[in-house]
Every structure is written in C-alpha cells, then in structure tokens.
Amino acid sequence: MSKTLFSKRLSKELRDLNTNPLEGVIVEQAEDFKRWRLRLRGAPGTLYEGEMFRLEFRFTPSYPLESPEVLFIGPEIPVHPQVYSNGHICLNILYKDWSPVQTVAQVCLSIQSMLSSCTKKELPPDNDLYIKSAQSSPKKTAWAFQ
Question: Is Cell inner membrane set as a keyword in this record (predicted)?
Fold first, then answer.
C-alpha cells in the first residue's frame, strides 16, 4: 500500500476520532503515522469502572492491510486474563482475524468490550512464563486462540 493511501487512511481515522469521540476513549498523542497513544477508561458498571489505561498503536506503511501492533503501556496495565503484565493483548482481531476494514476506533471498542466482560481480575495463567520469553512485539507471538 502506498504511503499516500496509508497516510490518508490514518488521517481520516484520526479526524473521525476527534470529530466523533468514542465514550471512554481519548486521543492523547497522534502527531505521526507511526505511533499513537490513546487513553481508555473502564466502562461504568464493570470491574474496571473509573480506571484509566493507556494503549499504544504502532503502525507500519502496510496498514490497514496489516494490523497495527497494539499494547497497553504502563504503569496502567489492566489485570485481565487476556492481558499480560508486559502489556501484550491476546485478542484475535489484532492478529489472525484482522481485517483491513477495521479501524483504530473499532479496535478500541473491542478492547473495551473485552475488559467489560471480565468477571475476575487475574493475570493469564502463563503470565510469568510468557514474560520471560516474549519478544518486544506481541505480533511475533504465536497466539493460540480458543
């Protein structure tokens, strides 16, 4: 995908996020097309109500054909069965089920939904082992989805 299309797509997404902000999602930093930081507020009535988390989106010029790298950055990393303590997120739409029609806003909604459906704050059972062997990019992990 050419840089022009990549830039146009992200410019449109950023404009949409600023024009029609999602409830509980705040664009914190998006000066370039390589890395965006957003704040995500835990939804009312959930285990994460009132908590604020920070997400980082890392884009390559292949976006949207290739998914962005998305992770929580500290120290506000939620304790959740699908979120490792290094911020890596085990969510299929970020990897094998990515579709170029998905947007940053839709990814944020999916992550909010994942957090909202949680019934117990706990780390993934293999957190310690994963942290020891994980690469810096969650996209280099061979995720096993149920």
Answer: no
Closest CA to 24 of 58, 69, 57, 55: 55
pLDDT tens track for 92-144: 999 999 999 999 999 999 999 999 999 999 999 999 999 998 888 898 887 77
Catalytic residue among 17, 40, 55, 90: 90
Three-state DSSP string of the chain: CCHHHHHHHHHHHHHHHHHCCCCCEEEEECCCCCEEEEEEECCCCCCCCCCEEEEEEECCCCCCCCCCEEEEECCCCCCECCECCCCEECCHHHCCCCCCCCCHHHHHHHHHHHHHCCCCCCCCCCHHHHHHHCCCCHHHCCCCCC
- The token duo for 75 is 């120290």
Assess whether 90 carries a catalytic annotation.
yes
CATH topology of domain 3-119: Ubiquitin Conjugating Enzyme (3.10.110)
Distance CA 29, CA 123 (A): 28
Sketch the domain layout of the chain as residue ranges.
3-119
